[in-house]
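Dear Dr. H.,

I hope your travels went smoothly. While you were away I took the liberty of generating a structure for the chain from your last submission, since the lab meeting agenda had it listed for discussion. I wanted you to have the full record in hand beforehand rather than looking at slides cold. The sequence, exactly as received, is reproduced here:
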Amino acid sequence: MDGHNRAFTFFGGVPQSILYDNDKCLVARILPDGTRQRTQTFSALLSHYLFEDRYGRPAKGNDKGNVEGIVGFARRNFMVPVPWFDTWDAFNAHLEERCRHRQGDVVRGERASIADRLVRDRDAMADLPPSLFDACDKRAARVSSLSLVRYRGNDYSVPVAYGHREAWVRGYVDEVVIGCGADEIARHRRSYDREDFVFNPIHYLPLLEKKVGALDQAAPLAGWDLPDVFATARRLLEARMGKAGKREYVQVLRLLETFDLHDLAGAIKDALDLGVMGFDAVKHLLLCRIEKRPPKLNLEVYPHLPRARVTTTRAASYMNLLEGHNPGLAS
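The corresponding predicted structure, in token form, is as follows:
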């Protein structure tokens, strides 16, 4: 279904009809009279784009010989030697570039180039609808006691506030979206492994704020790659405040529920540079960064608070204390 969206977007229109193989994601059953019982998702796609679906006969490759030939051509010319890319998106971009480059070729038996013939084909296509088809697998689910939702053999995290609640899942090609009621509550990169756990550490921070003793052993936080300033902030907070400092560090992390990681890392660096490491200071500096205003880490904006006056220490002050408690020692 996602491939249809991408193809129609590339063509700039919807063909009048498409010839298909009898793939299981399209055809649920072939009835005795030869008609196809479509899958629910494919029926929704046809209703969205309004084109005719035609099918080749089972085990009759000659019904779609042109398709088989083009697949072989693409494999031999675009994938030999075997290409290597860091991501599927980069690989698909490479294949699209090769296809666009080939549009200047003239196929044997034709007089016009592929690009010119494509222009004629576009004239016969229907216009694209205002929005693309929602190409996903929709399922109902339930959030477990560990704030996980299972989809196709893998577990995906959601915020701990949704534990034990009914949820819905939309599985796209590259991501999994989870919601509860009318709200989207989580979005993850889709895993194609089996029995995999896909965590978003931010989902578990409210619970860790209450149980800071589990901060070092929490599985959702394992492998969380944060900038170095976060480790420095935690070390300073724990050295100064002990267990309370660990809780304050979690409060700093919870700012990621609302703000961007890059902005928060910058605010922590500002707090370290100013020597004012603490949750309140980091939040203030973060807001100043976003609002592009200078920070005010002084009491001038709080006139109702009593001012502390610190003077230079004098030895005579200590002598007065000693005289008041032990006159003999003072003499």
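Two observations you may find useful: The chain has three domains: 2-124, 137-198, 201-331. The longest helix spans residues 88-102.

With kind regards,
E. W.
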